[in-house]
Amino acid sequence: MKMKRLGRSGLAVSELCLGTMTFGNTTSEPDSIDMINRFVERGGNFLDTANVYVNGRSEEIVGKAIKDKRSEIVLATKVRMKTAEHVNGAGVSRKHIMDGVDDSLRRLNTDYIDLYQVHVWDHATPIEETMRALDDLVASGKVRYIGCSNFLAWQLMKALAVSELNRYVKFISIQPQYSLVSREMDREMLSLCLEENVGIIPWAPIGGGFLTGRYGKEPPTSGRLTAVAGESSWALRATDKNFAILDAVREIADQLDKSPSQVALNWLLRRNGITAPIFGASTLEQFEDNMGAAGWRMPDEQWLRLDEVSRLPSEYPHRFLEKFRRPGLSEPDQSMI
User: Which PANTHER family does UniProt cross-reference here (predicted)?
Assistant: First the structure.
């Protein structure tokens, strides 16, 4: 498996990241530990969890699995969501961050976290307070690097500016939703990350299961897509455009003798700016299928077809700004690497 630098840092991570949200829930503890061991054996070193996954159970299982190989693992977790009923039991205030990191370290059975991420922006807490607290965690050695997740472009840029102004450590990565059926970050976030050298580690890279090819046009009766609300709900996924994308994925999968999941993930591996898609699995069979996304390169013709069918429509201000490109000057092609 290829290794990539994570954003502006010197930290090397595998091109696939193993997500652990199902660990202790739909994935048993033995299977969870088996997945981590198989992932590491095949060259993977990047694991992502969060303090709220299965009420902390995911972190506990990850801690058990990596106990004897901690130094070779890049371990990422998150803070922000509600973990206690009292008024300070959520957010990214200094208090909740400091409480949260100690709880995560205990569950993970480690004395440091490689990548500590703000799960969601907190409108109630000044970003200056959050960044100072994170800077102190890095200075203390409890955290090595910091990142964020689910931010808007202006929120990420403001956080970077606050760190620059105050000489705090900066976010080196962002974890957004991104896939062939969810390319909203192309509007602003992708170009910002390329400009500021922020690594992108997408969640839901196969659309919450939509791009596995297991579903037709009838609503499923099980799985994440059955949710009434949420980013992976059937109501959001079941659009004419997304079904056209799925048809293209299935056709290319047949042409390349790959699974639809492998095709969807491999498209992301070639997308400029993407560091490591985060894939999850409820079963060992799903894990093995997703691991098959690495180690091969999709031909340009098929890659471009998927890029075209999934591309966002030209919108303001982008279509307006295109009129003002300077004649005779070209910009680097940021569509592929």
Answer: NAD(P)-LINKED OXIDOREDUCTASE SUPERFAMILY PROTEIN (PTHR43364:SF4), NADH-SPECIFIC METHYLGLYOXAL REDUCTASE-RELATED (PTHR43364)
